[in-house]
Every structure is written in C-alpha cells, then in structure tokens.
Design a protein that fits this description.
There is one protein chain. The protein is an alpha/beta fold. The chain contains seven helices and 31 strands. The chain has a seven-stranded mixed β-sheet with strand order 5-4-1-6-11-8-12. A seven-stranded parallel β-sheet has the order 14-17-20-23-26-29-31, with helices on one face. The longest helix has 17 residues, at 221-237. The radius of gyration is 21 Å and the shape is elongated.
Length: 360
C-alpha cells in the first residue's frame, strides 16, 4: 500500500493550479501524480490512498480511469480540515493497518528516479519502524536536515528548516513505515516532521536510504522547470524512447507529443516538453520550457524558461523568458515581451511586461 499526501491548494504553482489541481498538472506530458503512482505499481503496490482536500472531484474522476488502466485500487481519504503531513495517516488508519504490512508515504510534489523496490529491501533489512529517503542539496535551509550513520543508515538527528547548518542531506519527502507508527498519531492536525519523526529518532526507529540520481520538489514554477531539466537529462542518460529523436528541429533532450505540429526553421530544445495538439509555426525558438496541451505559438517567437498553459495563443514575434508562466487560455499579442510575468487564466496581454509581476 501507499499513501500520497495530495492535500493543499497548490498556491505555489499558480496560475496553473487555478485550472487544475496540482497533482493533475502535466510534468513532461504526464500528471505529476501519475509519475509516482506508476513507479509504485512497478514495485508491486496494489492499493494507493490519496489524502485530499482540494478540487477532489476532478482528481477522483481521472484517478478512477487510471486505477482501471493500471489494475490497482485507488481510494480517497478526505480531510475536512487540513491535517498536515501526519494527520492523514491516522485518517486512513483502517486501510493502512490492514494486513500488518509496511506502507509507503509520499509527498505529491517530488520527482526523481523513484527507488521504491530498493527502499523496500533496505527497510526489511533493518527492521525498524521507519525508513526516510534522503538526498543531498546545496541549500538545506528550506527542508528537513538529516544527520545519520552512512554505514548502518540509522538517523541521529532531524531538524526541520534549520536556521544554522546541520547537514546537506535532507528529507526527500518519501518514507516506508511499519503500521506501528499509526499508534503515535492522533486523528488531528499533526506534522510528521515536527511531531513524530523526532520521537522515532530518539528511539532509534528511523533509518535513512540515500537517493541516487536527481531529485526536485516541483511545487513552484522555477523548481518545476529545473526538475523538468533534471528529468529529461535522466531520460537522456537512459537513452529513453520517450525522448524525441535529435534532428535539425530538436536540440538536446526534448519530449514532443506525436500530435503536435511544428513548422519550418524552428529550434526546439534543449530541455523542452511539448504537449498534445500544440501548434508551433515557422521560425520559433523554444528552450528550457514546457508548452501545455492545445497551445499555439505563432511565427518567429522566442520562448525561454517559461511555462505556457493549456490552450494559450502566443502571437508572432513574442519574446518570453525568466520563468514566465501563462495560465489557461491566455492570449499574447504580436511583438510583446514578457519578463517573468505570472498571467492568470483567460487574459489578453496587449502591453509588454518588463519586470516580474502577477498579471490579474
């Protein structure tokens, strides 16, 4: 079994999450949540519980389709109030405790080469209550910092969002727990990181599994684009057939949906994903960007480090850069320059935006 903490309102990924719940926003042409669920299924998980509070109807409809396709059970655990990262485990206690087997817990914003099979083997080998995946980052201050024995894996110290340097190893946002953890958590707002894990550490009941390869929390636009680059690079190293074949049009690692139409004299890449039904006219250059389903980019436009939402219409000779994000069905008129704008859905942009700002 696995519990995925879907939870919040997705405010960090606006304006995209004004149209879709964050787990359904496509990352490299596949909903973020599906990257995780498919990796869980590949290692033998048969029942996934989604802890949800926001826009759950749309999520439930799509997950019913995916559950049938993957031949698994997906159930929803509804939070009437936000329960943090620990409370949802108590809310789903009846499902998670059934059978007495260990279960996965995941933060829904994380993308990486998910090591679920290796995690399960490591967890079984040490016999303690919990296993946390850890990864190395240059700035640990935004995360939970971890000190552990690199040989045995036993965790010695855990500090959430440290003010002073503790370690450059951090909590990567996914775990395996024995059902005994459920005895520690009441059905109320609870933080795994602040209320539960410190007790496990003191009792020697938490071990660390070091992640190999890339990792990124893709819950906000700049990190979404960085995570996309890391993911595409990983696919390139594996020579994945998900990548489009290099050609005169495509430079570096690029994913282009087969239904997209691309004109002459374009340069797509490196690090670009193009969704279904996208139309790109002649002479367009796109780098380090995501173009969502149904968008249209007219001739001679230049797109760099941007996210173009579903059904957007980009006029000719437009320049976009610096983590510009367009919500659904935005129209950008001819010759406009967008420098780091966050544009809400269904807007028409008729004047240039030279400084990063939210366009209401």
């Amino acid at each position: 079994k696995a519990l995925i903490l879907v939870g919040g309102n997705g405010t960090r990924l606006r304006p995209l999450t004004l149209s879709k719940p964050k787990p359904l926003v496509e990352f490299a042409n596949k909903p973020i949540l599906l990257h995780q669920i498919e990796a869980l299924v590949a290692c033998g998980v048969q029942h996934v519980v989604l802890a949800v509070s926001h826009q759950a109807t749309l999520l439930q409809q799509q997950m019913q389709v995916e559950a049938a396709r993957l031949c698994i059970t997906i159930t929803f655990s509804y939070e009437e109030e936000p329960l943090g990262t620990g409370g949802p485990l108590a809310l789903a206690r009846d499902v998670l405790a059934l059978g007495g087997q260990p279960f996965f817990v995941l933060n829904s914003d994380v993308i990486c080469d998910f090591p679920f099979s290796e995690m399960a083997e490591f967890h079984a080998s040490h016999g303690a209550e919990g296993t946390m995946v850890v990864t190395q980052v240059s700035d640990p201050s935004k995360y939970g910092a971890v000190v552990y024995d690199p040989e045995s894996g036993v965790m010695h110290k855990y500090v959430e969002k440290p003010q002073n340097f503790v370690s450059n190893k951090i909590n990567a946002g996914f775990y395996i727990f024995q059902p005994s953890i459920l005895d520690r958590i009441e059905n109320k707002p609870t933080s795994l990181e602040r209320d539960i894990i410190p007790h496990q550490v003191r009792e020697g009941q938490m071990y660390c599994y070091q992640l190999q390869g890339f990792w990124m929390d893709v819950g906000q636009p700049a990190d979404f684009l960085t995570g996309m680059c890391l993911y595409l690079n990983s696919l390139g190293k594996k020579k994945s057939n998900l990548l489009s074949q290099k050609s005169v049009l495509f430079v570096g690692n690029v994913i282009v949906d087969p239904s997209a139409k691309i004109g002459k004299n374009c340069r797509i890449g490196p690090n670009v994903t193009i969704g279904p039904g996208v139309v790109i006219e002649d002479g367009v250059c796109i780098q380090r960007s995501t173009v969502m389903e149904g968008a249209k980019i007219r001739r001679n436009s230049y797109i760099k480090s941007s996210i173009i939402g579903w059904g957007c219409n980009i006029g000719p000779w437009v320049r976009m850069e610096n983590t510009t994000v367009l919500g659904e069905n935005v129209t950008v008129m001819e010759g406009i320059y967008l420098n780091g704008g966050k544009v809400l859905p269904h807007k028409d942009i008729k004047t240039s935006v030279t400084q990063p700002q939210v366009i209401m």
